[in-house]
Here is the input.
Amino acid sequence: MATLIAQPPAPAPPVTGLDVRLLARTNALTNTTSGLAPSHLQANLLILPAPHASDFRLLCARNPVPCPLIGESAVPGAYSALTSHLPNNYTAIASDVDIRRDAPRYNVYVDGRLTKEGCLDITAEWQHDHVAFLIGCSFSFEGALSAAGLPPRHTLQNRIVPMYRTQLPLCPAGVFTGSTYVVSMRVYRGKEEVQRVRDITRAYHATHGEPVDWGWDALARLGIVDVDVPQWGDAPLTADGRRPLSEAWAREDEIPVFWGCGVTPQEAVVRAGIEGVVMAHAPGHMVLLDCTDADVVSGGC
Amino acid sequence: MATLIAQPPAPAPPVTGLDVRLLARTNALTNTTSGLAPSHLQANLLILPAPHASDFRLLCARNPVPCPLIGESAVPGAYSALTSHLPNNYTAIASDVDIRRDAPRYNVYVDGRLTKEGCLDITAEWQHDHVAFLIGCSFSFEGALSAAGLPPRHTLQNRIVPMYRTQLPLCPAGVFTGSTYVVSMRVYRGKEEVQRVRDITRAYHATHGEPVDWGWDALARLGIVDVDVPQWGDAPLTADGRRPLSEAWAREDEIPVFWGCGVTPQEAVVRAGIEGVVMAHAPGHMVLLDCTDADVVSGGC
Here is the structure.
């Protein structure tokens, strides 16, 4: 007869944004944050030398749909004190934070070239005049879409949302010239569903809001050459998961819908060839915040 | 010997925004406001039925460069009380105002079609649920450019700035879909001048800010077919005023520079075919405000 031996309890899943930050800070979490701490905002991260901060702030202000600015370092060099740019100046977007360690993985660029990919922290690279910027992420409205019975297909198929470079120019700002929107794409069926997803995502101002375009003719308007070949994420598939999306048998019914994407600001930094050390989260490895999706929609966060 | 007879004094030129508003209110001014009350903000006007107000507000928020929202009716139906959207919530953007009479001339649209052009007031058309929106105008930074020794050529030639429809899409918002940027164009010489006009206009966030594009190759990016044929304003000319701009002998030296334009929101309303009675100022016949250009740049207005 086998002896009963007490097993150590399985670690509790992270529930709050702080739970996820602490796991990342201690390198107990090094994977994607997709699906963690549901309903808590996940943010794109971009860290620039202070001389470029005002131009980047202006780039976000002039292009709020792809680059919704949520918050930034309270002062240059601050990695644990953040100022909110959300309505009501809610300051506790992340009350216990170390921006150098709280994303699971980071990328480092020097003079516009990627020099480290997926490193676990950036404590060695952080300099006294670095300014961290937090930018909204569409994970937020995906929860709302699922809750409304309109789950994005890539979530059902356990794939990463497809993202595309476009020819849609950003409004330039100072040193940030020559960049274009990056968009994410989700497929919906029929005009009524498109109207519903427009209505549901509209209120998410801080996380890209409603779509920027939709329909098969949007591909030409946006300058997307091949819907089956996204520049980031996984290729989109038909509903049965067996064929490329472009082979969808009823194009009138399957409608690609495009939203502004948080990869846009990273592209802008690279395209502008910003001098000095620039850092960002590794795609998919976001910084979790204390605010929830509901806070953003209601303007409370 | 001729008898000296006292002549009535010539009317003093309007100095403040209120001076201009009172002249327009009494129909003593029915012409363009260009050059009046120098340094005071001139605003584009757009008046919508309340059911479309939130979508229009969102259109402006998502497209702040062509549609910089300065203020709006304090409540639906209010034509003499305005709420500011400028930094610091400066409320006295126009302290004694009747938005139905204070622009020299108006246009009226019904169900998206122009039904009255250039009428002197809209007191008969104003309904209890109309909401007036004030949108920034590039007259502001033109003063700054002239003060810096870079006067726009059209002002030297006493012509109206050329404005063009583009293929650059607005981010849609609710009922406002399918519209594109309108841009204004000013010619400068050489890359250094372009950089200087970018730097000078950058701070004018509430009045379109820095350019959206520049250079001869910008025409193709923006979808402008013929630089000599603007859709509004006067055709641009060479520096000697004798030839169409496209015949400029040194294209490398003469550089067209494009800014977001306040005609954009009117185009958006027409393209969306908004139902009901929509009103606007007649182009060039702006509403003068109490704020000055300096207030906008400093964030004080």
Summary: Chain A has eight helices and twelve strands. The domain at 139-260 of chain A is CATH 3.30.2040.10 (PSTPO5379-like fold). Helices of chain A lie at 17-25, 53-62, 139-147, 153-156, 190-201, 218-222, 264-272, 293-298.
